[in-house]
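Researcher: Please translate sequence to structure tokens.
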Amino acid sequence: MPDNIETIGSHDCAACPIVENGRRKFIRDLLVGAVGVMVAPSLARASTMLIKAARPIATKGESKTYATPATDSVQIDHDSDVILVRWQNAVYAFNLSCPHQRTALRWEDSNHRFQCPKHHSQYTPTGEFITGRATRGMDRLDIKREGNGVVVNLDSLHRQDQDAAGWASAVVQLT
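Model: Translation complete:
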């Protein structure tokens, strides 16, 4: 043994099972920890996206005001998860999510209908179910006319199958 290494007692550390087995475990744990540090931010972002996708549209008595559309059209407010539709002299507000599995709906202008990109459920501009895996119409939000605009209550979700009267009355007639 070299002169500059001090030996404590008669113990030979190189032959110690703690050093031999511990070195492999230490390197494995170090690598696992490093991978964890690199992957953790991605997992955090993914879990945040899942939480956002599954969150309710609002729970604080929130409302949002929109200008009344001048012509038949569809406006999608991704920040508030609201679809605003003017169709045949009536204005509707819908939840952006498909009632089947909460995927964001898309408007197909050529067919004048909404479609779910995941399972292809289709809906009329008034939110009525046409075909696909869903079993009910799009979820409507309470809407009222106020001046030149409409106010959408983000807390007032009406499911067609559970609240038929609320669903039917969640509309502003423009005539």
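Researcher: Any highlights?
Model: Confidence is low (pLDDT under 50) at residues 4-11, 46-59.
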